[in-house]
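hey all, quick one before standup. I had two proteins in the batch that finished overnight and I want to keep them in one place so we stop losing track of which output belongs to which input. First protein below, input sequence then structure tokens straight from the run.
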Amino acid sequence: MEISQVKAELLRLRKEIRRHNKKYYELDAPEISDYEYDKLMTRLKELETAYPEFITPTSPTQLVGGSARREAGKLVAHDVPMLSLQDVFSREEVEDFIKDAIAKLDSSEFVVEEKIDGLSLALRYEGGQFIQAITRGDGHQGEDVTENARVIYDVIKQLVDAPKYLEIRGEVYMTRQNFAATNERQERLGLKTFANPRNCAAGTLRQLDSRIVKERRLSMFVFNLQKVEGVDIQSHVEAYDFMTRNGIKIIHAYKVCKTFEEVWRAIEEIGQRRASLDYDIDGAVVKVNSFAQREQLGATSKFPRWAVAYKYPPDERETILRRIELSVGRTGRITPTAVFDAVSLNGTKVERATLHNQDFIDELDIRIGDTIKVYKSGEIIPRVSGVVVSKRPKDSVPFKIPDTCPVCNHKLEREESAADYRCVNVNCPAQLENHLLNFVGRTAMDIHGLGETSIPKLIAEGFIKTVADVYKLYTRREELLAKKIFGLAKATDKILAAIEESKKNSPAKLLTGLGIFGVGSAAARDLIQHFGGLSELSKATEEELQAVPDIGGITARHVKEFFDDADNLKILDGLKEAGLTMEEEKKVIESAMAGKSFVLTGKLEKFTRDEASKLIIERGGLVKGSVSKNTDYVIAGEKTGSKLSKAEELGIKILSEEDFEKMLAE
């Protein structure tokens, strides 16, 4: 290999690894699996070993993974550097580590334990009192996340056997059950879901609101004693005994070993049980037990020489893809799932794996009938890694997600600047629960008592099929009591009263609750203010909708499609019949602006676009989004664009900001 090629590959690898480090450690949004990342790092190490003259201090091999961030709190220096562990991938590498340690130490004990896939955290105690929590950051300083750590159940706040000072290091993680619950909540709220439990735990710990941390129920295992004053502890196992007496949750089922054979057997045992754990591990850690011997072995700038992390190879199998099923999430997102001949991965039977979206399918060119490669790498979730093209059936065709919803047959929409398809039909049965939760939510109809507990019961028992059925519940009081949907009579009557009270809400709140794609509370207020109520809004053209400030083309199209749908109009009739407030009296000031059409262009000095639009509407004028022959005035500020040119071509009167102020005064 020529020197120029070596330099070019080193440059490429370092750049790519730095990008993935940022994605993983700082943004909590990795693009590749741990196995793929490890291959990049291994190749970089191989080149730097062969050409040590090209090693640089800033190479990823010389630094701890992430850089410290400031979002969650102030930066704090670590008393003891929080170093990474050297990764090894084979039995031979583990044996070399053990033999080298024994040769240098004459004899030694090793502790083998699970390597939890989470986020490292240091906890500090003074006089037995928990005082501070710091993330690993760049290994030398990390973020202060003390308030978030206080709401993690596994973080002990007061030690029983209190030393003068104690600092311990552990891994914050999320159980698979809590991860599933968090993603379900994100999906229901229309928010981005997390790729895996590790990303979720890392993103959660950096939240500025500790209530979110508490809600997501993070967990923590402690795996190392960093520093202690006032207690004599000589080894890792002694430290674990001390922590256990103080109620600190340590890595369980660790093994103390004296020989390589014992170490390897312990690694294999962890590998065999990892599929049955309720949390993710990404390897097994082998540590020298004695603290004195750890001091003797020392550390590099990045790794301690007294420990290694063995990474299990991905368990990959070939199988036949039989079909691709499409499911509709609570927010309408379409998820394609591969269904294939069952294979055994990490001791579990696997027949299904998510294909994420159309872009993922296109990237791998996955087709029904293909021989696909399925694997698990540290994570419990099976994944499709590729296609064996040489085994592809001759009559195979590329797979495309249909353009209609598999549940309600409504046309699907692809999100702007995203890979996901969504069903935007607010009456789609697959989304009914989510739409109802939105409808009764605080920013919409704000019906206290209806929520995550009662709505699924109401749907399952057939009480509610559309949002209009909420206002028919009072006619079925006895049935509700018989089935104990809300509990006793007092609770039931309280909720029925809240439903009745909600009829007085403004039409803007009702519009928010209808769940039209792109119409949140702010857009709903703007639309109702502009049109005065649902009656005029339902008749508006897309052009008229876009004339409302901050209503773009996509939202306007979805609003128009909603009111063009006969089923939606039927629901609105039901809501009107129930007595909900559908119209809002428009505040109109008599003015020369009444009935005139205005277009705003450029930046105004004394008004925002919204303020100017509101003043025009209050005086009976119309605000349009584009210039046409029917436009009466164009109000031009600074840095105008094509709208001004078109107005001049059509001979439309141009108003300066001063002219606009004079017209307002009239």
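OK second protein, same deal, sequence then tokens:
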Amino acid sequence: MHQALYRKWRPQQFDDVCGQEHITSVLRYEVMNSALSHAYLFCGSRGTGKTTCAKILAKAVNCESPVNGSPCCKCAACLSIDNGAATDVLEMDAASNNGVENIRDIRDEVVYTPSALRYRVYIVDEVHMLSQSAFNALLKTLEEPPAHVIFILATTELHKLPATIISRCQRFDFRRIALPVLAGRISYIAEQEGMELDAAAAERIARMAQGGMRDAISLLELCGGARRRIDVSVVDEMMGSGGREEMLNIVQAIAKADYDTIFHTVSEAVASSRDLTVFWQDLISVYRDLLVVKTTEDATRYLDLTDAETARLTQLAGLFKKGTLLAHCHLLEEALFAMGRANAVKRMVAELTLVRMCDPALDTSSEGLLARLERLEDAIAAGVPVAPPVAPPIAPAPTVTPTPTAAPAPTAAPAPVMEEIPLPEPPPEELAPPVPPKAPTPAAPTATPTPTPPPPAGGRVLHRIRGFMNCVERVRRENAMLASFLEGAKAFLDDHGRVVLQLVSSFAQMMVDEAGARALICRSIAPEIKKTPAPNDLLLEVPNKAAAARDTVLDDLLEAAGEP
């Protein structure tokens, strides 16, 4: 009968365990010096060696002739444990035996001495699945078991264990196995099994295993089923992945808004019957790497990539702002959950999300809006003329048209007058006066600045008072009701230094227009304008809807960018 590779190549000694030297060294020392604990807690992600180390420890404490703290794997005790014939080593799956009656059975058995071995060892896998009553039943036995009993608890979710259980065990945290260690191990296994495995393919398998040795060996066995040389293309084909290069091309297409490439790539993935969920997870992984490159000084410390891949990621990261990357990650996360809920429309979810990522204006989430503001702030800080695209709606174009129409108007108007009046006497001396009127022609340019500065606020030039919300908070400390009428209001300074307060409604204007309220507002606004205005200098207004619609937060940013 065929045996899975991860079972065939399961370590039998502490020396064979990969990537967990900080744990195996301590366990070997305890075995060598007979300094064993009564209870161990092994916690960590899947496939990192928790159950393997538990079985090796069970053999080591019962081995007749251990070697440097590791079992010899040759004595009768080791062989019986390996064959599953040792009744003194019990392995229990708490996921299916999580009731209090199962723990009561253990509690009743521990009083008996081992039948054939030195220690009776209980290995409880996935211990976090035990019920609360089962934990309560185990508590006292776990704290003070008989001298011949050792408990080894293993879990992937430490946070689900009661603190009373954790405090009674010697805890070991199993780390995710590093990529070079995984790649080296599966390369060795492939060589022993007669498989031809490329180094790049080994790294690809190790990266997809995400730090789990069992997953890496299982992926190797899956790729070996192709019965040909295992390269990167074989790994991508067997896993339903398009490869990292395809993901990098999609990211570049998103940066350039290349919709043809995006739709073609998704169409190819669907046509080749690849799982779009795997495709999406690969894209999320690339965006994670982009964030690392964008936010750290030495990304190679956190990324297991080649020099060429790192250079390509650095080039792509330069096409995005940090806010844009975060907004894209938010969209990718939402789409991944949507794909899990709607399997039939995975393609549409993927395509719609990628299109939204190409055009920031289509992303109405808070992250998308923050990304757009970040680009605007960077442009203003860099001195890029952001105002021209926004200014035309605010500075009305009619200011240009009245100028030419106003100039011909004076010249056309006197012409008919000169034709009617001088009919009786057309001496050439009378024609001289029309020449001086042309002298005001240069005055026409002087008239053009006059209509240009005033915005639509009755010919006034208003300067927004920044930090007005701080003023509202100061008012709220003394008069919460008055502060409620100031919500949504805007404050300006006019040319005469008076404070113009634009309120949201006439009712709010009526409630604020009171001597005590005016005085409180003036005191609260003084820190922002560096002086205390008189209550009579506080002008209360209710702007029309058109003016309020033109006044936005972007106006504040543009105004700030224009200041010295």
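Flagging for whoever picks this up: The mean pLDDT is 80. Residues 36 and 483 are 68 Å apart (CA to CA).
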